[in-house]
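User: I've been going back and forth on whether these two constructs are worth ordering. Before I decide, could you fold them both?

Assistant: Sure. I'll take them in the order you sent them. The first construct and its structure tokens:
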Amino acid sequence: WLSSNSWGQLCNLGKLKGFENFVEQFTENVKFWEEYYQDKNPFQKELPEDLQDITMFQKMIILRCLRPDCVVDAIQTFVENEPSLGKEFIEPPLFDLGKCFEDSSSTMPLVFILSVGVDPAKDVYALGKEKGFEAPERLIDISLGQGQGIKAERAISKAVEDGSWVLLQNCHLCVSWLPRLEKIVQDLNPDTTNKDFRLWLTSMPSSDFPVSVLQNGVKMTNEPPKGLRANLKSTFAGIDEDLFDSSEREDKTQFQKLMFGLAFFHALVQERRTFGPLGWNIPYGFNDSDQDISRQQLQQLLDGYKDIPFKALRYLIGQLNYGGRVTDDWDRRLITFMCEDFVTDKILGDGYQFESKGAYKAPAKGATLDDYNDYIANLPLVDWPTVFGFDDNATMIKNNKDTLKLLDTLLGLQPRTGGGSGKTREDVIEELAVDIQKRMPELFEVERAKVKFPVVYSESMNTVFVQELVRFNRLLSTVRTSLVELVKALKGQVVMSTELEAMGNKMFDGQVPDNWTKKSYPSLKPLAGWVSDFLERLNMFANWMKGGSPNVYWISGFFFTQSFLTGTKQNYARKYTIPIDEIVFDFEVVPEVTKEHKSKPSDGCYIYGLFLEGAKWGEKENCILEALPKQLYSVMPTIQIKPCAKKELKQDKILYKCPVYKTSTRAGQLSTTGHSTNFVLAVDLRTRKSHPEKFWVRRGVAMLTQLDT
């Protein structure tokens, strides 16, 4: 039940003051610690007698090692109970734009720091109306972008004289003009500026935004409602009796039920973002305007047709209004399936459930607006993962990522001073740099590899191998050279450049330096894990150099995995003289084939090294199954990739097309080769009739070539 990463953290914990004997105490009382690990709220669990005297902060350190998913909640409990802090530090105050306005002045801009799904423009418009500053006469609204800077300058200079308001939206999209904005704000003089003038700015968090404008301005942020209940409450707060009964259909309940289904769909697509890459590969900015236009179209189509055109509604809502924002193919597959659950004739009957346990369902036919609001008020305060299609493991994965993000932020805020145990900060960095330097091998002899593995028509893997050596040499050279330079700089033999200083800071924090990641393959591992993984990859190619290509390939070890897959296709195409664009992959999971297997398949290849996220592979059942509790990732057995002509591919199995990614972020950029920097390929996995493709799509099941630790 204990992961190797958690055990490593516990061993490191033993080096801290007050935990010298912790590892021995842990090994002597393993049964208790397993119960602690399985507990729903381990932070509140009473510890053994020999640990009764430790502080709440020390309890959090133990929790960090064993159950990182509970750390954020524990920190909130700690802050709430700390006498010098208290509840007000964890509960955000209610957003009051009028109060913020009172704190501002004609020379002090009001800055909205945007978060996904929030549009403060309507709040500014509402306040403007209340104060007598209505658009377009006394409130000038400009959405910044290319060429809009000059227009904004003119508007500001006019408003400074006549006392109007100027709202500049999306400042982060006009980076080149921001220095000019900084100068304009600095030049605002209370003596020459109309006292009624106000400058409103909105921007996503951006490193390019002028610091002086932030320091001088009133800063505001307003996050969207969190949770399905809050989201539905927000939607139905804007629905009155007139709108609720506005359908011209004979049976008005059809519009009411579908409107509720749309509101629930809207809440779901927004709240899935909280699950990170499990929810959406890319966090899209769905907002209220998507729901408003969908509701209008819903009413138009219901009023205009006797039979409800569900197919057209699903297309408009799932593919255009919401789907228009979706740029990732796998996310598009998900939103299509989600829309089918809510824009359906099943919702018109009574008892239609949105998830298996029955807590979330459509209100009964004939329910009034008050009944709908009462139903929403009685929904669970904390969202059940099942309503999204997830299990409890998804919540653990989400919470783990939240903890890592919080701790990374804390690391970035810590003072750059010396560590404990008498060593200075520079000593720690130098020791680490020397240790990594010693472990790095020599560069590969590419010319020798070209002779030993020449370009041959029948074996494309030779070309793949040589290209991989060139890529790894580039990274290895960067690592070796920068480590030598850093050690010299720490000793005062060369000047400590900005890049070397940043590299030292990252290494001290246990993170991979930026100058390495620029030349590296995608990886989210911390420094120690990254170095070990890098050495494993180098070792794989060193063994290939000595003994030829392996019988079973470690797919995670390749720098550019797509070249390996193309090489596999090319070998098959040349062997059977078939055009390469007519070849597709078939897949078979072969658990009996281990990485020490003595032979290669006649066609295609064996691969291993993949991890299944959100499910597990059942070897007896020969299909994907639901994961065990707290089993966040499971190791996939060996897979045989079988190239074949498209027309020969058998379609007689129930399959889930499972995407494979390099890292758990899943999203990637489209590179110049036409490939995503993160997506590798889609593998067809067998599944049961009771768990069709739709089930696994909603659960966010994917395979990864590497874990984050």
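The second construct, handled the same way:
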Amino acid sequence: RHPALARRGSSVVGARRRRATTAPPPPAATASPSSSAPPPLMVDGTEDLPERQDAIDAAAASVGSLTRKIIDLGDDAGAADALYEAIVEWATETKNVELYDAQDEAVMELCEGNNVLLTTPTGSGKTLVATAAIAAATARGDAAWYTAPLKALVTEKFFQLVGDFGAKNVGLLTGDASVNPTAPIICCTAEVLANAALRRGRELDCGLIVADEFHYYGDRDRGWAWQVPMVELPDAQFLLMSATFGDASKFQALLAKNAAGRECAIVGSDAERPVPLAFEYRETPLLESIQEIVERKKAPVYVVNFTQRSANERAQDLCSSITLTGDEKAAIAEEMRGFKFDTPVGNELRRFISHGVGVHHAGLLPKYRLLVEKLAGKGLLKCVCGTDTLGVGVNVPIRTVLFTQLCKFDGNKVRLLSTREFQQIAGRAGRRGFDDEGHVWCQAPAHVVENKRAEAKAAAAAEKSGKKAKKIKKSQPPEKGFVQWNADTFKRMETSSPETLDSSFEVTHGMLLAVLSRYGDGKKSLYDLLVRNHEPLIRRRRHQKRAITMYRSLRDAGIIQEAGTMDVGGRSVTLGFDLQDQFSLTQPLSLFAVQFLPTLLRKYGESRSRLRDEAYALDVLSVLEAVLDTPQAVTYAQVNRMKRRAIASMKNDGVEYDDRMKTIETMDYPRPLEDELEAAYEPFQKNHPYVGNESLKCKSIAREMYDLGLSFNEYVVHHGLNRSEGAVLRYLTDAYKSLVQNVPENLKSQGVNDLEEWLGESIRQVDSSLIDEWEALKDPA
């Protein structure tokens, strides 16, 4: 048995059923009776959903909670007026909040069962409106779903709703973990709800959808997840919320076409920010600007970076610039007491936080981001150095937002921020109940600041000497990774209206399989989705042609089979022979991977020794890794490590410098099976034109971790990936999901099952902080 798996024991939750092979079973191991198994990993977030969500549990509602308020209404809970009055009374008495006009209007519309497009500015109480909508839905006996783009935001709302409705009444689904999935209130990422809607359509138990940060509807890669529920769940009530909606009338018209026939109100278009913003363009060095913010009592400050590396570097610089009082240091130390900084980056983060500086970006594990949010929420951090993802709804009280630049790399090119992106981030400044005014500062480009300072210095020297100022050599802007901005750019982003939200929809293998696996006529459901989506006519036709080509490919590959008539499960199309219920194709080239896997079976034979079965399993993993996106931070670290070792070896052997440099130029990260996969991919690409320019991305990350016998922490240290722990965890999770979903059951051997078990267990052991916190709320004793 693999040493990393053996030392963890066999406390794997939901381990998959073993298939009989010639390889002997692994030795049994027992977990300590006192140890608590970590939560099971999810695949697409929908596995644990029941046919019907539970009803509200009155016993779980604490005195003073909104649930208790609704229950106390008795038979009047279904009456809009009584419901509205109860919610307003709860907000006033329990939350000590007087509703703004826009909040009041939105709550009334929602209590009457109407759809609402809430367009109020950031900080104007959209969360309270969402809570009211959920209360009204559960009072009617409907299941309520809250969705958001980021797991951090979903998690924050989950715990807030637990406080309002009781731990047993709220569930969490993030795609990675499942907490209380049968609850009548579900908090989830947008993709989880979209996948559930694709799999079940109108049979999904969903009476209300609260879509927070709805401007993601226009996101190039993820917008489909905000569109699918609007198409597939026409009976539900919708609350769509965004501070940067732009023109909301198109969505009002789209929702008006839904089967439920609900009225749709646009609320808050003319609302003013409860906390006004003051904008300032700065031409001083960054550290001086931050020190001035702190000295002028405008902290906490959110220092906006656009790479994880720069966020960490800013935090490092600030540790020597920010000073804390003894009481402030003691308060931080008390909050950190008992917290486990038990991964390689932990000591660095502990040092940052002890200086009153937080770091928040996707490269960190969830538990570290939650800690920063908690400390910032209590006013213990002077600065939070984050990427632009902190600008998406996470409720961290920030007085000042400081943009370090106004351009970003969007995956294709470096460009200026859009008006919507700028206003979403700027809107985090100034929070109701914390500030009378918020501040948005923007740094001039570094070369402009440097030139201005040099000019001032030359002018001062000239005035002192009485001579003409010397001509200075001006610094130039970076040649790469930079787009010029100035004060006019800043002003334009401040005052312009957000861009129009356009449809972003894409047909994938996973989408086809999800819809076709429904009870009933899956092909008819797929046809409806392709006709009723929000794309312009010309793009809808393109999607329809692509779907037909994909359908034929899946049929020819045996992934789907046409039943001719409805089978006993009520389906007209079924998954092929020996494909498990969780089978899906999660990546653009997943079908290629599935079609290539039988090649490995022929290569290693049906009957094989344990060692050959392990080699077969590792090759299966390499095929799956070849169709996953490449985490550049990991492959870059792999190459650097190889080069360092090679240089040291060549130095010992007396190899000349030029020869050493020539040798390492050709080095690349490991790419198992590259030649075999590329040879098979060429004809596949010709026969499946819909793959377009997609290419294989052969690499060895999960496989390397297994081969070296390393745990997650050990692997991070091995390659010096301390600041990319989150990226490593996300990649390993994707690899695990591919093992679960993309490998047909008849190709899963004992070795593959052991590998799947080891990888799942490795991931589960990294961070279970969300589960621990929920368990504490559910059962305080």
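Notes on the second construct follow. The first strand starts at residue 115 and ends at 118. The chain is about 45% helix and 10% strand.
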